Structures are given as structure tokens and as C-alpha cells.
């Protein structure tokens, strides 16, 4: 064999090994704990999250409007606000077809035409990386014709237990040929927060159970010798506040059926009223009702970023924190979906790992920045998104410069 060719071959092999090692060093674990208020660690015993703050970064995520689970998980995945990524609420009307989008309806939930933007698992795969996703909202939809390399259909029962999800995460992280991006979703403490309220004993137990799982996961990562090769990001989609039925405002008490075609949701309430006289009638009737605000779509406040999508209602009604505009039966418990300016709606953020500064506080920042943060940790180029300003601000503090 030619001597120069042999040297060239050795160099190529060395570069390939270095590239593989580099990819391994940029492995990312992204975990969402639904409904985990930013200040739960101040109320409850959360040693694992406290350790992440001490040895990494902590922050306060400001959700996008509306501060709901599915819209915000898709914002976290794409960096786009709901008005730009299409999932504007849990239910809304498709103006082109007249169909009602509902998360409870598989026909619409799994229709990829509703999902705009490029979620992080597809960004990673498009650039040669692999992704394993455990139940992240939207990951079981063939967005742009593709799924993550590994995914689970959320509607299939029984669900994996939280412990099984942790085992699945470890299986992916310890696989030498495993994915560079691993994502996992946990329904708590959101479920307990809704049922019992954010300050209930049951919610405390849910928070502390999730924290114990995170502590166990970090210990297993350390025992596997992966602490120096996995960056961990733990966050939430929104916070939680207290609600009681005495704070319910009846739709039928103030609106006549002739004024609208459809009323969708309660936080916010999207009202489909195509005629200008209908819109004016609704806004006028609600203008003196305490604890809520109503706007024509064109008059929506800019800070809510809720105008661009054509499927947003002709009139949007938003209650003050702790109130609901609905005729549905309500009970005492927790609620979210309100203006993200309320601190009760703010969510958890923790990050630690080989590329994360230690002991830094990022303060409050918009959750549109998360997509770019994860892209940076993976060493890939993000698609167009809404989070650049906040990303640029937090990146200076968050990352170790190498």
C-alpha cells in the first residue's frame, strides 16, 4: 500500500473518530414536567432540582400565549409562538374547512397540516443526528412527513409509567449508537395541580415524586460515566394558579346565540363571529363585565402575540387570573392559560452538563428561546424561530465558551 495513502487513511479514520466523540459530547436530554411552576422549588422539597441550580443554570420560563400545555410544548419544540406554529388553542375552528380542531379528536390532532414550523427532533435529524422522544406533545404527528427516530403514540394505552420512561431514557443514553437528542414528557405535577390546586398536599407529593425521579436519573447518568457527555435541560410549559367556581362568568348570561357561530375554549375564548355587527355586539356586551377583557382580533394587544394565525377567533376573550368565562361545570382546583405576564403562569427551567455554566441564574426569559438553546447544545443550526432575542441574551450567561 502506498505510504502516503496509508497516512491519509489514518487521518481520515482519526477525523471520523473525533467527529463521533464530538457528537457524543453534544448529547442532550430534554425533560418536561407539565405544569411545574417556577417557584415550586421554593415551596417544596426538591433536592435534585436544587442541585441542578447549584451545579448548572436556573431560570424562570415565561410561557407563550395561551399558557396551555399543547401550544407551549410545540413552542418549546419549534421556537415559534402559537400564532406562528398553528396550535393556537386546545380547540379552534379551521376557517378554510369549517372543521373543529380538538386535541381529543384523533382526526384533527394527528393531522400534520395544523403543525407549522420544524420541531427540534426534525431539525436534528435533518442535520444527520438522531432523536428519541417519549410522549412529547406533537412527536406522534408526521410533521413535514416525518416522525422522530423513536417515538410513542400518546393515545395508546396504557402509558409507560414515569419509572419506565426513565428506564427508556437511560437505555437510549447508554447505547453507544444511540440518539444525540433524547426528550421525555411527564404529566405531573400538572394533573395534581388541576385536581387539587398548586398549594395542596397532593401537589406537593407530585412535585417531590418528579424531583426524586430526576435525582435518580442524574445518579444513573453519573454511574454510567456519562456526566461529562450529556447536557440535561429540565423545564415546564406553564405554571398554575388557584380557581374556584365562584369566579366563573357565564357565557350565556352576556352573549346572544345570534351574535356568533361558535364559542371555543375558555382560556382564551375564541369566538367566531364573521359579521362586524356581531363582533361589536360581543365586545360592547362584555366591556363592563368585571374580571375579563374582550378584543376584536385586529385589536389584540401586541404583548400577547395572538393575531397572525387565520384560525384565531374574530373576538378573543381573556379572563383575569383565577377567573373563567364558560358555561361548563367547574370545580375547585388549579388552572392555567392566562396572560403570561402573571408570575403564577411562569415555568421551571434548569440546565446542567459539560457545556453549561455552574451556579448561574438566567432570570425570566421567553420560552421561545429553548429551541435555539437545545440547537446550540447539539451543535446544529436552528430553523427560523421567534426566540432569537431572548436566546442571545441568555446564551451569554448560560454556555461555557470553548
Structure description:
- Helix 8 (162-174) runs parallel beside helix 10 (201-223) and helix 9 (190-196) packs antiparallel against helix 10.
- The protein has helices at 3-25, 40-43, 47-55, 69-78, 82-85, 106-109, 120-126, 162-174, 190-196, 201-223, 276-286, 370-378, 388-398; strands spanning 27-33, 57-62, 91-93, 100-102, 131-134, 181-186, 230-235, 241-243, 248-249, 262-264, 269-272, 292-296, 315-319, 324-325, 333-335, 347-352, 360-366.
- The protein is of the alpha/beta class and 402 residues long.
- It folds into two domains: 24-80 and 117-240 and 339-398, Alkaline Phosphatase, subunit A (3-Layer(aba) Sandwich), CATH 3.40.720.10; 245-335, 2-Layer Sandwich (Gyrase A, domain 2), CATH 3.30.1360.
- The radius of gyration is 23 Å and the shape is globular.
- The strands form five sheets. The protein has a seven-stranded mixed beta sheet with strand order 5-6-1-7-16-2-17, sandwiched between helices. A four-stranded antiparallel beta sheet has the order 10-11-13-12, covered by helices on one side.
- The protein has 13 helices and 17 strands.
Number of strands: 17
Whole-number tally of structural domains? 2
Q: What sequence of helices (H) and strands (E) makes up the elements? A: HEHHEHHEEHHEHEHHEEEEEHEEEEEEHH
Q: Percent range for helical residues? A: 25-40%
Strand order of the largest sheet: 5-6-1-7-16-2-17
Low-confidence stretches: 3-25
In round numbers, the mean pLDDT is 94
CATH third-level topology of the largest domain: Alkaline Phosphatase, subunit A
Distance between the termini: 39 Å
Give the CATH architecture of the largest domain: 3-Layer(aba) Sandwich
What is the CA-atom radius of gyration, in angstroms? Answer: 23 Å
CATH superfamily of the largest domain: Alkaline Phosphatase, subunit A
